[in-house]
Design a protein that fits this description.
Shape: globular
Distance between the termini: 19 Å
Strand order of the largest sheet: 1-2
Helix content: 40-55%
Number of strands: 6
Strand content: under 5%
Length: about 550
């Protein structure tokens, strides 16, 4: 079943040819273009395509800003992320009957003692805090943090120690556009990862192969046809990694020579029969560097990561032409730049292939993309961070909406991450089913009707404030065109536009019914007659757009 057929069973949208491209369906021929720098039109379609893939949703102001810039300047700006870590999550979980004795309300708990009684609440506060950062960010940072969280997947429920759960997220942020080789080393000895994959239990007397296996199978080499490491390689790697421990007082990792297997470790022909000579004492920790250096000598590392980046930012189908024209040259760039991540993304996001019509509008939004993107593009107003109880409650609500739609950040289903990013042949289609689609649309319905009210603060889509940012809002034809441009990655037929216009005009035949009402509202927003008319008609029109199948696409 092709992608559009799949969606047309869910909603009717009367498609017309789109300047965004119809995208790819399963079995359709992919773009044959490669990594040559894109030199075509830089307009609304291209700007929105780039922003939709790099950000969670696109605000009208972001479209206006980046469309006025060149492609080079836009990509460079999006890749220019802050190196300053955001302020940590705080205690917003105190209630009248449950008070954390170690952390005052509104203060961070990340340096407080471990607290089994409040572990769940603290991990939940990380998820709310993380959601708030997605809502605020206008660079590629948050998309990359989520990408690496899916790649180096850990589950907070398994880690359990809330401070390690938080520190793992900080590690993702620190390295999300940095050096992948450094990233792998730091993740290998990260106390959260050591706990998640039992690395802290790996000793010379009782080798634990969990991390050694996933390091190769999921984190570096992959499971492709050219990934020919052996079971003995896994066993040897486990011996190399033995001895790493967690200091429960400082919640940091350290190396224990007494638990380390100091024997020589022989690897297979896949690794050029490398022998890692056993080391004793503190020098035993250097074997980890030798293991990582050996792994990164394999070309498959670069290709594996480039395939994952391609599926994240472009499309899941990688055939022989995509492998030849995109993956292999990207991998060369990756290796030639000593595994720096940013040059790979700069090349991909500026390429002809990325802006090919068949690369546009072909992804299905993940639950996080749908939920956070909805909030960002409609510019929902959340409580200020200083109002921490309300802020965390409302951030947490949005995180829970994505979670019930099958993407619970901080707790992916397993060490492989979410199946939509790797499970052939469905991939993204896994996100949409008879259970998840109503949950997604429930958010859209709630935000356009009653809103979410908690603690006396209502989170709701203000259709008037949103529409005031749309160009030419007084012209019903241009308003509809600009709403569809911003909200959908594909154009719709003229018949759909007729329906939307009738909704805006309340069934009247002349454009001036809307124009007069809107201009009167703008001139005097205390006039309830025009204000209510504009509000009601806009809710009808926006609700109709949100129910189109194309609103699920990216």
């Amino acid at each position: 079943m092709q992608r559009r057929d799949f969606f047309q069973q869910l909603a009717s949208s009367a498609l017309a040819p789109s300047p965004f491209g119809k995208g790819r369906g399963k079995g359709e021929t992919p773009p044959t273009s490669g990594l040559t720098k894109y030199s075509g039109t830089w307009g609304n379609a291209q700007t929105l395509h780039l922003l939709r893939r790099v950000l969670f949703g696109v605000k009208q102001s972001e479209l206006d800003t980046f469309k006025a810039m060149s492609l080079d300047n836009t990509v460079d700006a999006l890749l220019n992320i802050s190196t300053t870590q955001p302020l940590p999550p705080v205690n917003a979980y105190n209630t009248g009957t449950s008070i954390d004795p170690d952390v005052p309300a509104g203060q961070t708990w990340v340096n407080a003692p471990i607290s089994p009684n409040y572990s769940f609440q603290r991990r939940r506060s990380v998820k709310g805090w993380w959601t708030s950062l997605m809502l605020e960010d206008a660079t590629i940072r948050e998309k990359m943090v989520l990408f690496w969280h899916d790649h180096f997947a850990t589950e907070g429920e398994t880690i359990q120690v809330e401070q390690l759960f938080y520190k793992n997220n900080v590690l993702l942020r620190k390295n999300c556009l940095g050096n992948f080789k450094t990233f792998v080393k730091e993740m290998t000895i990260d106390p959260g990862m050591l706990r998640y994959l039992n690395g802290y239990l790996n000793t010379k007397k009782a080798p634990d192969e969990n991390y050694a296996r996933e390091l190769q199978e999921l984190f570096t080499i992959g499971k492709g046809k050219d990934s020919k490491y052996t079971e003995d390689d896994v066993k040897a790697a486990a011996k190399v990694l033995s001895g790493w421990r967690i200091n429960n007082s400082t919640l940091s990792s350290f190396f224990d020579p007494n638990s380390h297997d100091s024997s020589d470790k022989q690897f297979s022909a896949f690794y050029n029969n490398t022998l890692i000579t056993g080391k004793t004492g503190a020098n035993g920790s250097n074997e980890t560097d030798g293991l990582i250096a050996m792994i990164f000598q394999q070309n498959e590392v670069a290709k594996f990561i480039c395939r994952k980046l391609y599926r994240w930012f472009v499309y899941y189908d990688i055939d022989a032409s995509v492998e030849t024209n995109v993956i292999v040259p990207l991998a060369t760039i990756f290796r030639d730049n000593n595994y720096e991540i940013k040059p790979v993304l700069q090349t991909l996001l500026k390429s002809e292939h990325f802006f090919d019509a068949l690369s546009m509008g072909c992804q299905i939004k993940s639950p996080v993309d749908f939920t956070v993107g909805f909030c960002r593009q409609f510019e929902l107003v959340f409580p200020q961070a200083s109002d921490y109880m309300n802020a965390y409650n409302h951030w947490g609500y949005m995180q829970s909406v994505a979670a019930i739609a099958q993407q619970d950040i901080g707790d992916p289903p397993n060490v492989a991450g979410w199946p939509a990013y790797y499970q052939a042949p469905q991939f993204y289609e896994i996100w949409i089913n008879s259970d998840t689609l109503p949950k997604r649309m429930g958010l859209a319905t709630l935000m356009t009707t009653n809103g979410y009210n908690r603690g006396g603060y209502k989170l709701i889509l203000d259709v008037l404030a949103f529409t005031e940012k749309i160009p030419n809002a007084s012209d019903p034809n241009k308003l509809i065109d600009n709403l569809l441009l911003l909200l959908l990655p594909a154009t719709v037929s003229s018949s759909v536009k007729v329906i939307l216009k009738l909704g805006l005009l309340d069934g009247q035949a002349s454009d001036y019914y809307w124009t007069d009402a809107w201009n009167a509202y703008k001139a005097n927003n205390n006039d309830l007659t025009n204000k209510n008319y504009c509000t009601n008609q806009l809710k009808l029109v926006i609700a109709y757009i949100l129910n189109l199948a194309e609103f699920q696409l990216n």
